[in-house]
Amino acid sequence: MTSLTADRSLLRSPDFLRLWTGSTASGLATWALPFVLGLAIVEGGMSAGEAGLALAARTLGFVLAMPVGGVLADRSGPRRMIRLASLTAALGLLPILASIAGLGGVVAAIVGAGIAGFGQGACRTAYQALFPRIVPDTQRQAGNALLTISVRVSTFAGPALATWAALQFGVASTLYAIAGMWVVSAFLPPWPVSSSSGKRPEALSPGRFVAELSEGLQEARRHPWFTAGLAALTVVIAFGYSVTSIVLPLVSEARYGGPQLLTASVTSYTLGALFGAFVIARWKPQSIGWWALGGLTLYGFVPFGLLVPGSMAVPIAAFFMAGLGIELFNVPWFTAIQREIPAERLARVSAIDFLCSYGLAPVSLALIAPLIGTFGTGPVLITSGLLCCCVPAMAMLTRGTRRFRNRG
Questions:
Q1: Which residues, in sequence order, are CB contacts of 169 under 8 Å at separation 6+?
Q2: pLDDT digit string, tens, across residues 186-209
Q3: Cα angle, residue 221 at apex, residues 130 and 340 outer, rounded to 5°
Q4: Class of domain 12-135+159-187
Q5: Where are the domains of the chain?
Q6: How far is Cα 108 from Cα 110, in angstroms, rounded to an integer?
């Protein structure tokens, strides 16, 4: 089957379209919530301090949900976990609404945001585990590319749509709309034929939870290409994403007196990621793992680009290349995990993937500002650029990374 035929076949598949729509709804809801909480400050329904605490609780809930959601999804099936997690995320909005209405105060906002974040985190790993049960192996690379396109559109359009809706209809109405998206995520995706093995799992005691999570860790260690690729991804996010998240706004303000560079760079990154997703949807090189890790090295251009004074063209081009490279990595990476990891452990391994790569990002964000204060912006950017370029390249030396397989 050619890639073009696979694309068209997927777009004609009701099951895939339901899965894609549910995943997109959950992505829009996830990315919209932080911006709605920010707009609640403008409306006077929440103070800046309260919104900050709520966002921190949301992030904590998101991170804590990764291992819990992974274990539960493997025990009961990812489709059940999607329903439970989506409804949890929707219910978490109710205490936030109460807080905005003057009931429950900041405690209600914090509790609600934590519950919503927990549902968001658990839902993400469950969608990753459900995907290979719906999409055949020959179509997974194209399908993952279509899903990542929806993620990029969600990260770009979610905040914009949330801002527009909040300004037009108010924060409370927008929160109800976000809850509606979570209901779509809960009930729209299809149920796989083999969603239940018929075997009743043991009761989930704390000891059993640790044992099952350890099984996921053992499975991850069985795949050298996975541990090497995850280490490379974690370094790029810690020293690439985090540095630019802190430095980019500072450079934009210092050099151009406003958010011009920030806005243009984020837009360029999104366009690069969309282009990369379209490319990798149809391109299947023999050494796809090396190409993917090579794409990850492109993020190193971003810290180096921010060192170049004068024209905005250099950092904007660097962000485009970074977006292109991250999708050249993401799509083969997710496809390989879905292919190589047994279905009964896939959610736990996906949880480890997200927890190590994105879950540790808040730690690096907290450390970047002190490092810049101690060593200066230039040395931190140079070090970050070198790490982003060198660590993925070094990962290519690990057995199995050439094709993201244990064999060959």
A1: none
A2: 999 999 976 454 455 667 788 899
A3: 40
A4: mainly alpha
A5: 12-135+159-187, 222-395
A6: 5
Alpha helices in 341-376 (DSSP H): 346-357, 361-375
241: its two tokens: 């994403």
Are 12-135+159-187 and 222-395 the same fold in CATH?
yes
Q: How many residues does the chain have?
A: 408
70: closest CA among 134, 126, 131, 26?
A: 126
Give the position of tokens 């990002």.
361
Q: Distances from the Cα of 11 to the Cαs of 4, 17, 150, 157, 221, in angstroms?
A: 11, 7, 13, 22, 35
pTM: 0.90
Q: pLDDT tens, 87-132? A: 999 999 999 999 988 888 889 999 999 999 999 999 999 999 999 9
C-alpha to C-alpha distances, 165 to 68, 171, 277, 279, 296, nearest whole angstrom: 33, 8, 29, 33, 36
Q: Which CATH superfamily is domain 222-395 in?
A: MFS general substrate transporter like domains (1.20.1250.20)
CB 339 within 8 A of CB 140: yes
- 238-269 pLDDT per residue, tens: 888 877 778 888 888 888 888 888 889 988 99
Output the CA torsion 312→315→319→322 (10° steps). Answer: 160
